Amino acid sequence: MNKTAFITGATSGIGMATAKLFATHRISLVLCGRRQANLDSLVKELSAHTKVHSLNFDVRDREAVAAAVNSLPKEFAAIDILVNNAGNAHGLDPIQTGDLADWDAMIDINVKGLLYVSRAILPGMVAKRSGHIINIGSTAGKEVYPNGNVYCASKHAVDAINQGMRIDLNEYGIRVGAVNPGLVETEFSEVRFKGDEQRAEKVYQGFKALQAEDIADIIYFVVTRPYHVNIADLVVMPTAQASSTIVKKQL
Ligand code: NDP
Ligand code: 8X3
Questions:
Q1: pLDDT value of residue 251
Q2: Is any ligand 1 atom within 6 A of the Cβ of residue 141?
Q3: How far apart are CA 185 and CA 187, in angstroms?
Q4: Is domain 4-236 annotated with CATH 3.40.1030.10?
Q5: 151 included as an active-site residue
Q6: Ligand 1 mutation target, pool 142, 145, 184, most atoms within 8 A of CB
Q7: Is 219 exposed, middle or buried (CB count within 10 Å of its CB: 0-12, 13-18, 19+)?
Q8: Is 31 touching ligand 1 by the criterion CB < 6 Å?
Q9: N or C: which end of the chain has fewer CB within 10 A?
């Protein structure tokens, strides 16, 4: 496909699986994240299939975001597809004892970071009157679960931003949609529980969780619909999951 995709959070999980799938379909890639070693090995691996450029920046740093986007070589500068994927949960605590640093991280990364990246890329899409934004939300953006408070708030914000983007960009023919997964087995829970691998593993025990590749398949489906079709808001859960709190486990 003769398109260029800009993927945030490409160094693991859903972003990495999407990068790998896009590469096999020869979509040119701009891959973003903070772990340089992961970016380097992805560039090496995926360059066999397509053109790949990496950008190392923290989405929280608005100047770094703008500088990174402005630094793109000409052949990568016209972005057709933006996958706003970088994000994480930090902590799982009741609101009255929540860690302020965790709250800052979630709001700054999941909400403000997504906005900074979008603000840097959208003028280019508006100028050429084409583009496709895929915002990675969550079932946490559709319902709130115990101790999910601020993470859920950040993903509800993504839900609102997704709608707002679609409205404001409508006249420019830019497609905007969200993919909202339930439980996906990635590094997500390791980050949420600050490296406590045992606690993280428990989240996915006793049922078949979604895999990063399942979400990548859906994102590829979304970006390969005919132009008149915009998947505006998609929720996907493992079959074993009925809601954020109801998961059929066989332990
Ligand atoms: P991972 O932890 O595997 O991936 C998170 C990605 O985000 C990494 O590539 C990480 O890169 C990047 N990232 C995190 N913080 C920053 C930052 N400050 N600046 C730049 N990049 C950052 O988790 P997932 O793949 O599961 O998560 C991807 C998205 O999917 C997130 O938005 C998450 O909320 C969402 N999601 C996940 C679900 C799940 O159950 N796993 C379910 C629903 C939604 P690096 O560390 O290199 O910077
Ligand atoms: C990730 C899914 O249920 O851990 O967004 O919030 S959940």
A1: 85
A2: no
A3: 7
A4: no
A5: yes
A6: 184
A7: buried
A8: no
A9: C
Give 199-250 as a DSSP string: HHHHHTTTS--EEHHHHHHHHHHHHTS-TT----EEEE--TTBSSSS-B---
pTM value surpassing 0.85: yes
Pocket of ligand 2 (CB under 6 A): 138-140, 148, 182-183, 244
Average pLDDT over the chain, rounded to whole? 98
Write out the H or E segment, with its range, that includes residue 153: helix 149-168
Distance 139 CA to ligand 2 centre (A): 6
Select which of 116, 151, 172, 220 is catalytic: 151
CA distances in angstroms from 72 to 103, 128, 132, 136, listed in the order given = 32, 17, 19, 23
Q: For residue 1, what pLDDT is reported?
A: 82
Give the list of residues 6+ apart from residue 174 with CB closer than 8 angstroms, or none: 122, 125, 126, 129, 130, 131, 132, 133
**Ligand 1 contacts CB of residue 61 (under 6 A):** no
131 alpha carbon to ligand 2 midpoint, in Å?
28
CA distance 83 to 4: 11
Q: Cβ distance 87 to 136 under 8 Å?
A: yes
How much distance in Å is there from the Cα of 171 to the middle of ligand 1? 31
Give the closest ligand to the alpha carbon of residue 135: 1
What ranges do the domains of the chain cover? 4-236
